[in-house]
Amino acid sequence: MEPALEKQKSELEKTVQEFLEYLEVERSVSPLTVRNYAHYLRRFTSWMLDHAKLKLTDVDSDAVRQFRLHLSRLQDKFGSPLSKKTQGYHAIALRSFLRWLVKNDRQVLSPDKIELPKMDDRSLKFLNGEQVDRLLNSPSLSSINGKRDKAILEVLFSTGLRVSELVSLDRDKVDLERREFGVIGKGGKARVVFLSGRAAEWVQGYLDSRSDNYLPLFIRHKGKFGPGVADEETRLTARSVQRMIKKYARKVNIPVDVTPHVMRHSFATDLLMAGADLRSVQEMLGHKNVSTTQIYTHVTNRQLRDVHDAFHGKGGK
Questions:
Q1: Is 150 a catalytic residue?
Q2: How far apart are CA 17 and CA 42, in angstroms?
Q3: 236-256: average pLDDT
Q4: How far apart, in whole angstroms, are the C-alpha atoms of residue 247 and residue 166?
Q5: Does the keyword Cell cycle apply (predicted)?
């Protein structure tokens, strides 16, 4: 690589790294989000250098259009095109990066020039009541793993917790008598979370079956634990919870790709369909803006339309 190009590459990488550190320190963004932003932005800066865009000031609306065209033609490691959702994440990361640069008095393309993809209602998956019941009743209670999994499923549907919030819970921070506890969500936003009586009972039952003194609320039970094993070594991981939920969804033949986030969607949708107001649901989910919570109203509005079509005018005169 030519010295001039090497210098520009180094400066771009340095600027991106400063932005990522800003996200981590100032915005308290999760490590996973920082990692994803790093991937998307490094793909963009590599494209810039490949197309003789040596400085951020070289990035204009036409360059962004060309980059998005490049993304639409990319293939993943399996030979499939990048999904529209993944392409959209690149645009979100780039806009956030430009907004940070503008905030720091850098003369770059206005972030408002980058149009973000619209949320597709069909991407919002959730379980109906019957599917929730089947999933919650799927673990076998004859083993401690089954009791743990039952408690996890009950807590997820009772609280709408993000999986990262769930696995970070510690025993001494969850008040099972008052059925509430605090969590720190995205962006360092704190909120109070409430457990249903049923969820609290299953968590207590799981804890009663444990003979250890490890701090994490949910731990792995495979492998040997002995003196000197740190609490964090026993903590269940987010990936383990994801695999567990998929396993039970397959077991009871639920035709939805069930993830912890689908459980979160199901929690919010269930509340709104039962008549909860949007602001309250926003607080319970830990959303910074109510506009994020409004995606659920599209689903509940469709439900209301179905009810209207099924029953309006059928009562006779």
A1: no
A2: 10
A3: 93
A4: 18
A5: no
Query: Would you give the distance in Å from CA 169 to the centre of its chain?
Result: 17
Cα–Cα distance between 115 and 111 in angstroms, integer?
9
In a domain, 191, yes or no: yes
Residue that wins the pLDDT comparison between 81 and 308: 81
Structure tokens at 208: 């009663």
Residues pairing with 179 in the sheet: none
CB 90 within 8 A of CB 110: no
Which one of 150, 162, 235, 265 is the catalytic residue? Answer: 162
d(CA 311, CA 48): 58
Residue 103 a catalytic site member? no
Provide the β-strand partners of residue 184: 190
Is 261 part of the annotated catalytic residue set?
Answer: yes
The CATH number that applies at residue 250 is 1.10.443.10
- pLDDT tens for each residue of 186-229: 777 889 999 999 999 999 999 999 999 999 999 999 876 766 78
Co-location of 174 and 300 in the same domain: yes
What's the pLDDT at 121? Answer: 46
> What domain range is 292 assigned to?
129-309
Three-state DSSP state, 49: helix
Whole-number Å distance between alpha carbons of 139 and 309:
38
User: How many CB atoms neighbour CB 216 within 10 A?
Assistant: 18
Q: Of the residues 186, 210, 220, 246, which is catalytic?
A: 186
Q: With CA atoms as reference, report the closest residue to 294 among 69, 121, 84.
A: 121
Q: Give me 173's structure tokens.
A: 């921070």
Q: What is the mean pLDDT of residues 158-169?
A: 93
Q: pTM of the full predicted structure? A: 0.63
> Choosing from 95, 235, 264, 265, which is the catalytic residue?
264
Residue type, 162: R
Q: Residue 296 catalytic?
A: yes
Question: Of all helices (H) and strands (E), which one includes residue 191?
Answer: strand 190-194
Could you read off the pLDDT of 286-300 as tens digits, one per residue?
887 777 777 777 666
Which amino acid, residue 113? K
Last residue of a domain, one of 90, 117, 144: 117
